[in-house]
Amino acid sequence: METAIQTPSYAEAEVNKELTPEQKIEFLRQMTRIRRFELAALKFYNLGKMGGFLHLYNGQEAVAVGTISLLGTNDHVITAYRNHGHALAVGMTPEECMAELFGKATGCSKGKGGSMHFFAPDKNYWGGHGIVAGQTPLGLGLAYGLKYKGIEGCCLCYLGDGAVNQGSYHESLNLAALQKLPVIYIIENNGYSMGTSLSRSSAFKESLASRAEGYNIAWDMVNGEDLYEVRAKTQVAIDRAHKESLPTVLEIATYRYYGHSVADANAKKYRTAEEIERYKHEHDPIQLWQKRLLEEGIITEEEIEAIDKAAREEVNQAVRFAEESPFPSESEIFDDVYYEVDHQTESGRRGKHFFNN
Amino acid sequence: MPLITYRKALNDALAEEIIRDENVVIIGEEVAEYNGAYKVTEGLWQRFGSKRIVDTPISEAGFIGMGVGASMLGVRPVMELMFWSFAYVAFDQIVNNAGCIRYMSGGAINCPIVIRGPANGGTNVGATHSHTPENFLANVPGLKVVCPATAYDAKGLMKSAIRDNDPVMFMENTLLYGEKWEVPEEEYLIPLGSADVKRPGSDISLIAHGRAVITCLKAAELLEAEHNIKAEVVDLRSIRPLDEETILKSVRKTHRAVLVEENKPFCGVAAEIAALIQEKAFDDLDAPVARVSSLDAPAIYSPELEKIQLPTPHRVMQKVLSIC
């Protein structure tokens, strides 16, 4: 599973060759923003400013940023509960995301979703789903909707390595192949299904992605610490979805630095501290991208530092925004349950919808 | 007015809505080429083709979730479950996804999906195929639940359900599919959340939904003929939203109520109605609210016994006599 960038070949892929220096720097800016957002979330979670669970994306940034950087107007995104990186990568603001974590009315879901449930359908971002693999049929449905409406697009549906043994995922693969739907399942394989390592949770011959073979679905393996490779291989899948309306399974090798969630009491028991340190020092996607940009001569150490400083300031501002925002009012508890009630349509006004006592 | 079957009424409703709205699509097991396991979709595939009438593999979690996802993009899928009992393998998709996405997204998303199929016992297919989940799906804020008892209601409610912008769980009954009722040829809609007094009466309110309404109508005839008791039969039609006013109006008139359902008693729909009546019409009652539900065991196979496991007109009558 452990990988290191060996070859510059993916930099030469068409989709990477056409990148401008500013676009490459923007990827660094996005990954740095995600990293700083998560570190701030961790800090304020530990200070008791937010409830529930907090599943951090640190170490996996190149996956969301690399894949989402390729999407066009009619491409959609849906993921599981480790969803802050994807949300920021589609363009949601740190303010609305941080406010959601703080449970505030200004949060992206008005404080009704929490850490695992960020949504921005106006940015083709459909969540943020808390039940392992529960989003995989929904991603299929988004692809179905595109095909039904005759729109050339695709849906990137992310899941973790722990989700690949859920029945709903396998049912989705079968349906995707049968109906020829433009969905791309992206397994972010960080090696651990909560506290259970890959070898203890999944039976497979070659890889998790190769299970797609049984459904006659194209698949590939991707080194998730190399943004160029992530982009190059994801573009192949996107082209397949757009041009042939066919699904793909991509397995992207990656690593999370923190526990399954911050509440994961055994975060350092099911893997060694040395392993975590090795990934942080040798396989960190942000450091590796910085190194590449320095080697390509399109950024300086000072500019890297400035990007990090700007990200910290941006996130600090998001925390201030979240802290200063009001909690939702009690009267909002019954909003957003039923569309027809919210819009006070004839249907929404008829009959009793809420059964309070 | 033409007499048509409950099955044909549903079929007509689906066809009319497919013609009316290009986003309406029928998806489910055997709905297209096979003509529907219970023939509710008979002829639709021949008329409308494979884009609008879509066969799926036996894969409820997958295809129900697919329908929910498509509905988020504005497709209006009508999903057939061959039996509502099969919803249990798609429970996460129905409850967590269809039921909760709107709330968790702060109202940014809605799921205009209908999930339909039969939910009934009485066909000697054993416990796994005889579930009646209207009570626990109505327990989920975000979902709507309807249970039509006649062809007329089935058609009007189905058309409203398809046009509704929230997820509607539409529960039919295989024992009613072949029964006939008068259904007008011209278009009509029955709004969700409106109950219907199926038989007026002055002495007691029989409040029911689904096929239990038919049982109550038979019981009401017997009560009148044999005991000169005039029972009013209130058909809920819609469980959530619930027409509280019609229920209370009837009880305030008759001062007595027996709640009848083919569901099990514990936390059943009737339990909710009983709580409502005691809370809001306590002073109007001349007797305790009574219930007649399915006998509280898994659905038994043995045909002779299953007949008495479900509420019968006789059992309803006995219960009425115990409080009148």
CATH architecture of chain A: 3-Layer(aba) Sandwich
Low-pLDDT residue intervals, each spanning 5 or more residues of chain A: none
Per CATH, the class of the largest domain in chain B reads Alpha Beta
Number of helices of chain A: 14
Radius of gyration of chain A: 20 Å
Task: Write the SSE topology.
The complex is a heterodimer of chains A (357) and B (324).
Chain A: H1 14-17, H2 21-46, H3 61-68, E1 75-78, H4 84-89, H5 94-101, H6 135-148, E2 154-160, H7 167-179, E3 183-189, E4 192-193, E5 196-197, H8 198-201, E6 218-223, H9 227-244, E7 248-253, H10 273-282, H11 285-295, H12 301-324, H13 339-342, H14 346-349
Parallel strand pairs in A: 1-2, 2-3, 3-7, 6-7
Antiparallel strand pairs in A: 4-5
Helix pairs in contact in A: 2-3, 2-11, 2-12, 3-9, 5-12, 6-7
Chain B: E1 3-5, H1 6-20, E2 24-28, H2 44-48, E3 53-55, H3 60-72, E4 76-80, H4 91-98, H5 101-104, E5 114-118, H6 134-138, E6 144-146, H7 151-163, E7 168-172, E8 180-182, E9 196-199, E10 204-208, H8 211-227, E11 231-235, E12 238-240, H9 244-254, E13 257-260, H10 269-280, E14 290-292, H11 303-309, H12 313-323
Parallel strand pairs in B: 2-3, 2-4, 4-5, 5-7, 6-7, 10-11, 10-13, 13-14
Antiparallel strand pairs in B: 1-8, 6-12, 9-11
Helix pairs in contact in B: 1-7, 3-4, 8-12, 9-10
Describe what this molecule looks like in 3D.
By secondary structure, chain A is α/β, with parallel strands linked by helices. Chain A has one domain: Thiamin diphosphate (ThDP)-binding fold, Pyr/PP domains (Rossmann fold), CATH 3.40.50. Chain A is built from 14 helices and seven strands. In chain A, the strands form two sheets. Chain A has a five-stranded parallel sheet with strand order 1-2-3-7-6, sandwiched between helices. In chain A, strands 4-5 form a two-stranded antiparallel sheet. In chain A, α2 (21-46) crosses α3. Chain B has two domains: 3-182, Rossmann fold; 196-323, Rossmann fold (3-Layer(aba) Sandwich), CATH 3.40.50.920. Chain B has helices at 6-20, 44-48, 60-72, 91-98, 101-104, 134-138, 151-163, 211-227, 244-254, 269-280, 303-309, 313-323; strands at residues 3-5, 24-28, 53-55, 76-80, 114-118, 144-146, 168-172, 180-182, 196-199, 204-208, 231-235, 238-240, 257-260, 290-292. In chain B, the strands form three sheets. Chain B has a seven-stranded mixed sheet with strand order 3-2-4-5-7-6-12, sandwiched between helices.
